[in-house]
Amino acid sequence: xxxxxxxxxxxxxxxxxxxxxxxxSAIPILTADEERELAERLHYQSDLExxxxxxxxxxxxxxxxxxxxxxxxxxxxxxxxxxxVGLMKAVKRFDPTMGVRLxxxxxxxxxxxxxxxxxxxxxxxxxxxxxxxxxxxxxLRSQKKSLSWMNNEEVDAIAADLGVDAKVVRQMEGRMAxxxxxFDALASEDExxxxxxxxxxxxxxxxxxxxxxxxxxxxxxxxxxLMSAMExxxxxxxxxxxxxxxxxxKATLHELAAEYGVSAERIRQLEKNAMKxxxxxxxxx
Length: 285
Fold this sequence. Notes:
Blueprint: H1 2-11, H2 17-25, H3 32-45, H4 48-56, H5 59-67, H6 76-93, H7 102-121, H8 131-143, H9 152-162, H10 166-177, H11 191-194, H12 198-201, H13 209-230, H14 235-246, H15 253-260, H16 264-284
Subcellular location: Cytoplasm
Function: Sigma factors are initiation factors that promote the attachment of RNA polymerase to specific initiation sites and are then released. This sigma factor is involved in regulation of expression of heat shock genes.
Organism: Marinobacterium iners DSM 11526
């Protein structure tokens, strides 16, 4: 597969799609016997040259499928590149003993890669995430008769044909008709347009000035009470708490025990008693 990928990258549909289409259209189409022979060489002998020939002879077919998705507003070259990935996956998995032509087997893999690419890039916000929504997305576009909103009869007919609820069809139609909108207005837009941007009218409940001021005051008051309570401790207890809880690099019980020449258990007791005194002092304050 590596050789096939290098050839496709060399052709590069993204650089000049017209030249690419002309090049792949000139590649001869394999007969059924030639295709079966190459497929058997790949399947039984892992012949990479056979894989290359199978891929190259079907590149024109990928272009044909990609053109059927031109209505989604995405570059044809990008669709072709994604379809080529699907084609290589199909060639790798193709079993010549099944008695079908490669083109019939590969169409599923090619379309699957293109569908994934379209859903990722058609909108900033994905319009379809579940398998059912993806199926509805592509079928709805093909079955809509016009760009206008569907009437109830059309919605019911599509819902019955696809086996989904009419409400789901309406929801997908609304998603497909919507456009992506930037949260902030662009610098080039006029003053009136800026008031239409979501940032101008959407409320941010987390940005309540009163709540922010109250939280700030509460934090400052808590720190003041803590410092005041610690001043009522003896120097050793105050140092132990500061080293154990307030320092960036917190000291261990054993480090403080070695420093004060006592046991780690004694440091733990001093720490516990100091915490109890501080808690009481802060409650009284």
